[in-house]
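dumping this here so i dont lose it
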């Protein structure tokens, strides 16, 4: 059992890319795996004509700023530029711009083509790229946004409100799986709470699953299952943010947002949940959760429904920030639908666990103060 820590656990996998690698990692640890790709095996389909037109538009005028969202997108763009004999010209043109990149994969792709970013957030979140730009006067700035598989029209709109001229380069669009049958089956398993966890390596996979659940009339059942019994395991916070809309608590690796780290986290997380979750808080206090029972340093803590819902969301990501909208969505029905209700629930939770147990992260949300 020691070398098969996931023995007896049943885990759903939604990935198409690297699915075999992920399944092998989980099965090697003893898990029973249900594989249901949410997206096409070839999700990154490039529209050559549209991309060529966008590339010519970029080259036609100066570029003041380039926002890079994905490494795979930049690689695909430059691969096409090389086919068209435009790669050197594109590199030289973009070298004159201020370049912001979403994360290390984007940075790696940039440097591969002789480009260097001026700044990238440690969070790998594109929202933090926008936060970095918020408040700046972008009047007259020509900004090129390399889109990922989903439209960033709201990003372009936000930048235009700051005065920028925005050119969106759509390198590829994510396509749903050619055979939706396995995904329909996975949704039924989640709704029936027949899985212990489901893994997600991208935000579009989450959107695809929720779309299928909606088409089956099972969206509420799926959300309820994720909130109570089925762990939504994400490769990182960017994917996890796609669940905020539904009030689904998620877990993701705290340090490295990679496949192996996600599987390693499940290896530790699932057995501990079955036995009861134990967390060491700042100050050496021990928090134990088993179902609706909460113990602090061995003493039972009585919590009403709203503070307990907030605590469950925070312990799902100990040490990581959970946004106010996500916490609001977790509150029981009948709770006042405003962020004030979240603040009241947090205040009651602090009263029960101690004021230092829950930390406020300005403009972002709250997190459980765990021991380092």
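and the seq i came up w/
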């Amino acid at each position: 059992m020691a070398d098969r820590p996931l023995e007896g656990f049943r885990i759903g996998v939604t990935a198409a890319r690297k699915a075999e690698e992920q399944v092998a990692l989980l099965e090697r640890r003893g898990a029973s795996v249900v594989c249901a790709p949410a997206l096409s095996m070839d999700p990154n389909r490039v529209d050559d004509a549209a991309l060529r037109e966008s590339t010519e538009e970029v080259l036609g005028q100066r570029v003041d700023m380039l926002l890079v969202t994905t490494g795979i997108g930049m690689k695909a763009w430059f691969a096409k530029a090389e086919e068209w004999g435009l790669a050197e010209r594109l590199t030289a043109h973009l070298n004159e711009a201020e370049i912001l990149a979403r994360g290390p994969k984007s940075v790696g792709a940039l440097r591969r083509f002789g480009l260097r970013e001026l700044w990238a957030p440690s969070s790998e979140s594109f929202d933090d790229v926008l936060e970095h730009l918020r408040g700046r006067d972008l009047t007259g700035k020509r900004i090129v946004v390399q889109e990922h598989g989903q439209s960033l029209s709201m990003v372009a709109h936000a930048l235009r409100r700051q005065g920028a001229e925005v050119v969106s380069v759509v390198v590829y669009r994510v396509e749903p799986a050619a055979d939706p049958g396995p995904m329909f089956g996975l949704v039924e398993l989640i709704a029936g709470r027949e899985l212990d966890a489901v893994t997600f390596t991208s935000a579009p996979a989450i959107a695809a699953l929720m779309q299928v659940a909606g088409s089956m009339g099972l969206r509420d059942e799926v959300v309820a299952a994720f909130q109570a019994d089925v762990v939504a395991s994400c490769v990182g916070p960017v994917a996890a943010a796609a669940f905020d809309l539904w009030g689904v608590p998620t877990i993701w690796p705290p340090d490295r947002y990679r496949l192996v780290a996600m599987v390693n986290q499940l290896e530790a997380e699932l057995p501990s949940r079955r036995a009861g979750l134990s967390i060491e808080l700042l100050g050496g206090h021990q928090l134990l959760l088993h179902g609706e029972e909460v113990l602090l340093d061995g003493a039972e803590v009585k919590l009403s429904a709203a503070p307990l819902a907030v605590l469950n969301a925070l312990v799902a990501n100990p040490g990581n920030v959970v946004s106010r909208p996500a916490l609001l969505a977790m509150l029981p029905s009948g709770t006042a639908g405003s962020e004030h209700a979240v603040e009241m629930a947090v205040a009651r939770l602090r009263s029960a666990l101690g004021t230092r147990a829950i930390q406020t992260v300005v403009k972002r949300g709250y997190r459980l103060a765990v021991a380092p």
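DSSP finds 15 helices and 15 strands in the chain.
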